[in-house]
Amino acid sequence: MRPVIAFLLCWTPFEAFADDWSAVESPTAIVLMRHALAPGTGDPGNFRLEDCSTQRNLDDRGRAQAEQIGQALRDRAIVFDEVWTCQWCRCRDTARLLDMAPVSDMPTQNSFYSDRAQGPEQSAALLEELANWGGGRLVLVTHQVNITALTEVFPSSGEMIVTELRGGALQVTGQIEIAP
After folding, report:
1. How many CA atoms does the CB half-sphere of 2 hold within 13 Å?
2. Is the pLDDT of residue 151 over 50?
3. Cα 37 from Cα 57, distance rounded (Å)
4. Cβ-Cβ contacts under 8 Å for 168 (sequence gap 6 or more)
5. Order of all β-strands in the sheet with 138-142
6. Burial (CB count <10 Å: 0-12, 13-18, 19+), residue 7
7. Measuring CA to CA, which residue among 165, 137, 134 is closest to residue 150?
8. Structural domains in the chain?
């Protein structure tokens, strides 16, 4: 029976991190946030990066969710040094509506949903950018596929996966979900 007990004490399921605000308070937290609610899956066939009208976008609930998440962070006096976002409109809008810090476009966070073969190379490039970043608390607003590739967590819309960069990889230290 002792080996079973030892296993249970060492094993920490991702659910154990649910709503762990202390993790995001770490001065070295890197928060991977899936864009707020944008109903549907993927993007329309006529998708063009430079034209938001061709993309799946935040709806009213998604915009309210992004604002609510930003307010919840401010209510806890959590400040970020930067917000990085992919170039999809739903991510940019989420990042802007958080109203947390200056927002920068980061193409390495763009979705590879339609071409999964790009995932490993793109994830490695993002990890390299994180390793070269000056440090501090950072939010990355991106897509489920990107977050799952980096953490093995399948986040809900607007969910924050709190991580820290350790040994060239992102280690999950917390999860926070504020439903729309």
Report:
1. 0
2. yes
3. 8
4. 127, 131
5. 103-105, 82-85, 138-142, 30-34, 160-166, 169-176
6. exposed
7. 165
8. 12-176 (3.40.50.1240)
pTM score: 0.88
Of 117, 134, 49, nearest to 85 by C-alpha is: 49
Closest among 105, 116, 180 to 141, alpha carbons compared: 105
Calpha distance 114→135 (Å, rounded):
32
What separation in angstroms does the CA of 22 have from each of 55, 173, 176?
35, 9, 10
**Joined tokens for residue 39:** 């109903």
| 92: enclosing H helix or E strand | helix 89-98
What is the C-alpha end-to-end distance of the chain, expressed in Å? 43
The residue type at 7: F
**Amino acid type, 73:** L
- Residue-wise pLDDT for 36-64, tens only, equals 999 998 888 899 999 999 999 999 999 99
Residue 7 in this model has a pLDDT that exceeds 60:
no
pLDDT digits (tens, 9 = 90+) for 65-96: 999 999 999 999 999 999 999 999 999 999 99
Q: CA torsion angle for 30, 7, 156, 36 (degrees, to 10)?
A: -20
Task: Express each pLDDT in 18-34 by its tens digit.
Answer: 578 999 999 999 999 99
